Amino acid sequence: MEKETLIGGPGRPFPTTRWSIVIAARGEGEPRRVSLEALLADYWKPLYLHLRRGGLGVDDAKDAVQGFVAHLLEHDSLERVDPSKGRFRSWLRASLDNWMRNRHASDVAEKRGGGRKIVSLDVESAERALREAPGDAASAFDREWALGVMERALITLRAEFAAGKREGPLDVALRFFGFGEPCSYAQAAAEAATTVPLFKAFLHRTRTRFREIVRDEVAHTVGDDGDVDAEIAELMHALGRAG
To answer: Which contacts of 174-181 are long-range, i.e. CB under 8 A and separated by 24 or more positions?
Structure first.
């Protein structure tokens, strides 16, 4: 029997890979603004942790994130992103490193966006995340990216239950995902007022749906379908889980 993991399991067809958010961010008007906001909301914290682990202090890291984002916007850098050449995550981190190497002290203020707040940074939450982050910059970026994927997938899963698309004791099941204190199947079934076999069946369905959501989330920003499994493997590695 194949080992079942939170994200792994027997191969199933996954959604067609999309760079939909990145592509929309290249456009104009409201779709561009919405897509850019979505990208920045997803990636600013990995960028910030990458810079902090790279040796920058809090204020310098804040300024650098704002400066890098301003650079992306002002130079239409997303126009040069090629989905056929791989993962957006890798491109973004490499672009930040390149920008940091080439920026000059004399134009830091300009690259900050002239004092404008380009993206809202919750530095307190980022600094809390930094305490658990790996010591090197690239690993810190990857771990925070992976945590962000999982968080967004969990939000989507909760929304499906809240909307009535799915029913069952979600909070009890999530304890078997690593969200909350672990418990036995018997204890979980008792809390859910059901039998152990019925709870196990519900847990399996919920895990399956969570995997689908995670795969869909990952598929937004990888180059082709073949990269999805590789990206999932990197996600699991970044989280320190056995795949």
So the answer is: 176/203, 176/207, 177/6, 177/207, 177/210, 178/6, 179/154
CA distances for 159 relative to 29, 42, 50, 77, 227, angstroms:
28, 18, 30, 34, 27
Residue 97's Cβ-count burial label (10 Å; 0-12, 13-18, 19+) is middle
Domain containing residue 190: 20-239
The answer to whether 47 and 68 are in contact (CB under 8 A) is yes
Per-residue pLDDT of the chain (243 residues; tens, 9 = 90+): 333 334 333 333 323 334 556 666 666 666 666 766 777 778 889 999 999 999 999 999 988 988 888 787 777 666 666 666 667 788 888 889 988 988 754 455 444 444 556 677 888 989 999 998 989 999 999 999 999 999 999 999 999 999 999 999 999 999 998 877 788 999 999 999 999 999 999 999 999 999 999 988 888 777 555 578 888 888 888 888 433
> Within a domain: residue 11?
no
Q: What is the largest CA-CA distance in the chain?
A: 68
Number of folded domains that form the chain? 1
Specify burial of residue 23 (Cβ count, 10 A radius: 0-12, 13-18, 19+): middle
What predicted TM-score, i.e. pTM, was given to this entire model?
Answer: 0.73
Is 119 a member of any domain?
yes
Contact 112, 63 (CB under 8 A): yes
**CB count in 10 Å sphere of residue 64:** 24
Give a yes or no: residue 4 inside a domain: no
Residue 3 lies in a domain: no
